[in-house]
């Protein structure tokens, strides 16, 4: 698989709002004004539709899946936590919070298979929820598809043993580490502090303990990636939550939120611009109450 995807899946939410259950392990969520349920939902759906329009305008193939009305799923807009598509496999993942587990939909996988996505097997790891072991797909894992390496920061949502098992199943070499915010709290998902593109990586190296940092940066340097180092302050603006896609001309675009883009320095933009066009999409409501950004909304298909 190429690193930059041409085709992604996004889930248009029926409901959206602040989820107190997920907030226990997600420091990026805010409950301020969260009782304005209808307004928040309306704004989030509007942000979603505008994001899809921007991506399609660039020629990205976006498969929009409609969320089901019941059960109510406040985080359905973030499908990259429950499924990943590989060359010949589809993997379904165990999720930490019970409120999110109904997001897993086999009918969605079957829809892609009917459209020609060839999967020799569907690997369902959700039974590990009964053992309190969790791994939340490309939220937990950053895949370097071209070099068959997988990076993950261990947290309540990312079990180290299950990460190794997943890598064994999919043929990736695991690189596990820890990542902490400025308060010493584990960063809940790897994809808020790290993004691997074809030629570069956006990463918050200061969040990684010193004894592990050199291993992670060394692996990235060895694969020829130019390092764009971001600060913890930029992580809080979702500057690590980006995804490289291909436009209609086969050119690289790096998709990020407007908040992430505005947090970048000129030097960081200059490095990324050597390789990719930067595409900034405003999703303030989704970021504030969902605690995730644009990368969490996109599940790469191929």
From TrEMBL:
<dbReference type="InterPro" id="IPR014541">
    <property type="entry name" value="Amdntrnsf_FN0238"/>
</dbReference>
<protein>
    <recommendedName>
        <fullName>Amidinotransferase</fullName>
    </recommendedName>
</protein>
<dbReference type="Pfam" id="PF19420">
    <property type="entry name" value="DDAH_eukar"/>
</dbReference>
């Amino acid at each position: 698989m190429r690193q930059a995807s041409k085709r992604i899946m996004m889930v248009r939410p029926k409901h959206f709002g602040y989820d107190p259950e997920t907030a226990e392990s997600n420091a990026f969520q805010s409950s301020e004004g969260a009782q304005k349920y209808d307004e928040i939902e309306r704004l989030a759906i509007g942000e979603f539709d505008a994001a899809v329009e921007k991506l399609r305008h660039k020629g990205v193939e976006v498969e929009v899946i409609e969320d089901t009305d019941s059960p109510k799923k406040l985080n359905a807009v973030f499908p990259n936590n429950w499924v990943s598509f590989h060359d010949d496999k589809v993997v379904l993942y165990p999720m930490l919070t019970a409120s999110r587990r109904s997001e897993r939909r086999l009918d969605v996988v079957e829809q892609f298979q009917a459209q020609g996505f060839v999967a020799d097997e569907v690997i369902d790891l959700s039974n590990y929820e009964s053992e309190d072991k969790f791994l939340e797909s490309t939220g937990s894992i950053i895949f370097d598809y071209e070099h068959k390496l997988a990076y993950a920061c261990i947290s309540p949502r990312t079990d180290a043993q299950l990460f190794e098992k997943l890598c064994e199943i999919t043929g990736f070499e695991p690189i596990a580490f820890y990542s902490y915010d400025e308060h010493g709290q584990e960063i809940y998902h790897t994809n808020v502090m790290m993004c691997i593109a074809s030629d570069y990586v956006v990463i918050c190296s200061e969040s990684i303990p010193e004894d592990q940092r050199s291993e992670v940066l060394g692996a990235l340097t060895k694969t020829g990636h130019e390092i764009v180092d971001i600060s913890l302050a930029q992580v809080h603006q979702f500057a690590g939550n980006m995804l490289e896609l291909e436009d209609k001309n086969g050119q690289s675009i790096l998709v990020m939120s407007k908040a992430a883009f505005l947090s970048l320095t000129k030097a960081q933009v200059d490095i990324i611009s050597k390789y990719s066009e930067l595409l900034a999409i405003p999703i303030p409501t989704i970021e504030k109450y969902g605690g995730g950004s644009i990368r969490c909304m996109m599940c790469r298909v191929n």
